[in-house]
Amino acid sequence: MEEELAKRRAAVVSLGYNLTAAGVKLVAALLTGSVSLLSEALHSATDVVASLFAYLGVRISAAPPDEQHPYGHGKVETLAGFGESILLILIVGYLMVEGVRRLIVGSELERLEWGVGVMALSTMTSLVVGQYVWRTGKRTHSLALMSNGQHLMIDFWTSLGLLIALGVIYFTGWVFLDSLLAIGIALWLFMGAWRLATRAFHELIDHRLPQEELALIDQILRSEPNLLNYHNLRTRRAGAMRYIDVHIVLPNDWSLQQAHDVADKLEKRIEHRLRPAEVTIHVDPYDPEREALREQQNLYREMLRG
After folding, report:
1. Are the C-beta atoms of 155 and 43 separated by less than 8 Å?
2. Which has the closest alpha carbon to 20: 57, 45, 52?
3. Cα–Cα distance measured from residue 153 to residue 126, given in angstroms and rounded to the nearest whole number
4. Could you write out the three-class secondary structure of 201-262?
5. How far apart are CA 253 and CA 250, in angstroms?
6. Of 1, 107, 213, 244, whose CB neighbour count within 10 A is largest?
7. What is the pLDDT of residue 33?
8. Nearest 5°: phi and psi at 298?
């Protein structure tokens, strides 16, 4: 419950900040005629949508499992992250076209002191809010909040770069820098959007957990002295929740109660170390012939990899 409240609070803070920043930057872009300021305003506008996606994703994914959704609603957060990345890529296309057009045709800038002031304020506030949202997302394992925090940190760096560039233009009159900067911001946004889209896509198609988490699962299973072997380990992630299932091999002369106790203990250990997680363990009795065949199959796979 505490984690869910923290996630909602961070999403609301991010949404409020992005609404304010987008409005102020848009006014400054209209006053100065700067395409780089316009690119920042559109960037912040996409962050508004991203924050809204994050807020809705957090709210919906927190809903408990039901009859129609027995595995919960965790993938809503992943869908929100994927939606944000697609939106960013579309904005990048527009900014690239506008930046190139202004570079060829040329443009005039006015009231640059307004732009410098707005970007100075944006630089400071985006750093504070971005760090808060990112750390909350990392602590609560929320992909939507982490991606939203990433957007805000990108906002900080682009705001800082734009602040410096507007200062240079103000003192030198090199207006062409405005268009070059807009193109640079667009390329920066594309790299972040591509990374986010890739990560979200892997979660949507049930990509396995990271190697370090798989190594932790292996360590926990092998630390059980009564475990003879394990196989069919499958993992995936939906939002913040990890789903893990595995078959373990125990002595074939054990009672049902003994086997259940070991499986239950391992489930709880893995769930504790990788929380939030849901672990399902199936128990197989030891069969010498089956184990020998499995060893041969494993050796064959290793040979193919080598």
Report:
1. yes
2. 45
3. 7
4. HHHHCCCCCCHHHHHHHHHHHHCCCCCCEEEEEEEEEECCEEEEEEEEEECCCCCHHHHHHH
5. 9
6. 244
7. 78
8. -65, -40
**CA-based end-to-end distance of the chain:** 48
- Distance (Å) of CA 289 to CA 253, 282, 285, 296: 16, 19, 12, 11
Domains in the chain (CATH in brackets) are 2-204 (1.20.1510.10), 211-305 (3.30.70.1350)
DSSP reduced 3-state for 279: strand
Q: Is 15 helix (H, G, I), strand (E, B) or coil?
A: helix
Give the residue among 148, 121, 154 at the shortest CA–CA distance from 135. 148
Higher pLDDT, 41 or 294: 41
Beta strands in the chain (DSSP E): 229-238, 241-250, 277-285
**Residue 184: other Cβ atoms inside 10 A:** 19
Determine contact, residues 39/180, Cβ cutoff 8 Å.
no
145 closest CA partner among 244, 32, 34, 13 = 13
Question: Which residue has tokens 């805000």?
Answer: 152
* Prediction pTM value: 0.55
pLDDT band at 257 (very low <50, low <70, confident <90, very high): very high
Tens digits of residue pLDDT in 113-167: 777 888 888 888 888 888 888 888 888 877 667 777 877 787 787 778 778 888 8
User: What's the token pair of residue 287?
Assistant: 């069969």
